[in-house]
Write a structure and sequence with these properties.
This protein is of the alpha/beta class. The chain has three domains: 154 residues, FAD/NAD(P)-binding domain (3-Layer(bba) Sandwich), CATH 3.50.50.60; 133 residues, no CATH class; 123 residues, Guanine Nucleotide Dissociation Inhibitor, domain 2, CATH 3.30.519. Helix content is 33%, strand content 20%. It has 14 helices and 19 strands. Strand 3 and strand 4 form a beta hairpin. The protein is globular. The protein binds flavin-adenine dinucleotide. The site of flavin-adenine dinucleotide has 36 residues, from helix 1, strand 14, helix 13 and helix 14. Flavin-adenine dinucleotide binds next to helix 1, strand 14, helix 13 and helix 14.
């Protein structure tokens, strides 16, 4: 029987394990942490539960196809709910926009609340859809490569390449398309889904808005961690053997191939090795030179707050924008610092999953974007941010928050580095701030024929859907060896 050793039980490691086991391979997964999930983590404290990583779920067809490939149905393992309201946006001037998941209703809300003409938003979302359809076969679902430049997909795409707008920044594109600063800021935000700067990242990143606003946003009924648990359960049923608290230390090579992996639990022979460790850093089994902070995506400071009351002004996903968005990104990417006024994201899973907080209580995940770790004084930065964040939220919601905090924890960029192996705490490996950054991501194929890389730091990119795609691309290559 063919056998594979997978390093890391994050989303892409779990998904690769399922695909290979379903294809009849013997699969073992070695994970440094004590359980599955990687960045998709969970924290329990004082009767509260928080998802500690991703909170927005899009492109569920990829997860459905993964379960289908193993002869199962996604809904039996991970029931998903389609959100009717995706995000509640609050702008610095007091404007509030509820973004419904239906595109026409969203465009109407933007016109009613900000004055952005409906037509602008609908034309923009239509353009995002066409861009998605263009990039999906040539870049997202297959590795870009010289060998494919005369393939049917590529030949069909060439006449439309101007649509990528790779040499225009996302913000400059939005400044041309939209009339109102609110619409520009709202759509600029999608650059942060890849940890990038909308003032320098290419307008190609508008493809991200397509998934949310044309295809819809979803939420697992048992919270985001329910997704990791569902993948893990299916892997167990398929016979995958998981080894937690087992760190891969070194790949052992013999005759130009990877022969096995030295782990903290001993040496393991392997026919194929798939690493989902972050390739940007020294433990990625790939690069000689780890990426410097300037090349990395953003990190985050997250506060997990348990509150002894509920706040009707909040929905599941809430965004409180800063007054000077450009300065936030300048501070983050040029100065590796935090701006005094930061945009704040608040995610309250107990709005949909009541068991995540005691009755009458709420579990807040409060996040601000932060630079990757370059030795900053995170204790001081986090303490200062906490007060600024609470001041801003109290003012914006018009209600006291501090006296109602009954449980609290926090996650800093340095914690992200230690808990998930994220190099310098960057959420998505390299940033996408340059015109062709997407094409320079590390490929799924590793430096040896039987070595592969998956996950948020490699092609096609970070985030749950792209991690699932990297697992699919890697498996297709492995099965064709
Ligand atoms: C705060 C936050 C918010 C996010 N929000 C969203 C969102 O809303 N929507 C979205 O789609 N995505 C979001 N993401 C991104 C998404 O979570 C990640 O892209 C995805 O989960 C990464 O999966 P992965 O397969 O790369 O594995 P990772 O989650 O990076 O896990 C890698 C695993 O490998 C293990 N490992 C590393 N080195 C070794 C070794 N040497 N030996 C053994 N094990 C090792 C680590 O312990 C870890 O468990 C967010 C991420 C974070 C952190």
């Amino acid at each position: 029987m063919k056998n594979a050793l997978i390093i890391g039980a994050g989303v892409s490691g779990l998904a690769t394990a399922i695909r290979l086991a379903a294809a009849g391979w013997a699969v073992e997964v070695h994970e440094a942490a004590e359980g599955p999930g990687g960045k998709m983590g969970s924290l329990e404290q004082d009767g509260f539960r928080w998802d500690t990583g991703p909170s927005l779920f899009t492109w569920p067809a990829l997860a459905e196809e993964l379960f289908h490939s193993a002869g199962r149905s996604l809904s039996e393992y991970i029931p998903l709910r389609r959100l009717s309201l995706i995000t509640r946006y609050r702008f610095a001037d007091g404007t509030l926009v509820d973004a419904p998941s239906e595109a026409e209703a969203f465009a109407t809300a933007l016109e009613r609340q900000c004055g952005e003409p409906v037509r602008n938003t609908l034309n923009y979302l239509d353009d995002c859809r066409r861009l998605f359809e263009l990039t999906r076969p040539v870049f997202l679902e297959h590795p870009p490569g010289i060998g494919r430049i005369f393939s049917k997909d590529y030949l069909q795409a060439y006449p439309h390449l101007y649509r990528l707008r790779a040499w225009t920044s996302l913000h400059r594109h939005h400044a041309r398309v939209f009339h109102t600063p609110q619409a520009m800021q709202l759509f600029d935000r999608y650059a942060t889904y890849s940890g990038s700067n909308p003032y320098s990242a290419p307008a190609t990143l508008r493809v991200i808005a397509h998934l949310e606003h044309n295809e819809g946003a979803y939420f697992p009924e048992q919270g985001m961690y329910g997704f990791a648990r569902g993948l893990y359960r299916l892997g167990q049923e398929l016979g995958v053997s998981y080894h937690f608290n087992s760190r891969a230390l070194r790949l052992v090579e013999r005759s130009g191939r990877i022969a096995g992996v030295e782990t903290t639990r001993g040496y393991r022979e392997a026919g194929v090795v798939v690493s989902s460790a972050d390739v940007s850093g020294p433990e990625g089994f790939s690069r000689k030179d780890p990426l410097p902070p300037e090349r990395l995506s953003s990190s985050a400071i997250i506060f997990f707050l348990g509150l002894n009351k509920s706040y009707p002004g909040l929905d599941l996903h809430n965004m409180f924008f800063s007054a000077d968005y450009q300065n936030e990104f300048r501070q983050m990417f040029s100065e590796l610092n935090l701006a005094p006024d930061m945009s704040i994201y608040v995610f309250v899973s107990s709005k949909l999953v009541p068991s995540d907080a005691p009755p009458g209580h709420e579990n807040w995940f409060v996040m601000v974007n932060a630079p990757p770790d370059a030795g900053q004084d995170w204790g001081r930065l986090a303490a200062e941010s906490r007060e600024r964040i609470l001041d801003k939220l109290e003012q914006s919601l018009g209600q006291p928050i501090r006296p109602h905090i009954v449980s609290e924890a926090r996650l800093l960029p340095t914690d992200l580095a230690t808990t998930s192996g994220a190099w310098r705490g960057a959420l998505y490996g390299p940033n996408g701030n340059r015109a062709m950054s997407a094409f320079h991501r590390h490929p799924v194929q590793g430096r040896r024929k039987n070595l592969f890389h998956t996950g948020g730091s490699v092609h096609p990119g970070g985030g749950i859907p792209l991690c699932l795609l990297s697992a699919r691309i890697a498996t297709a290559k492995i099965l064709s060896l």
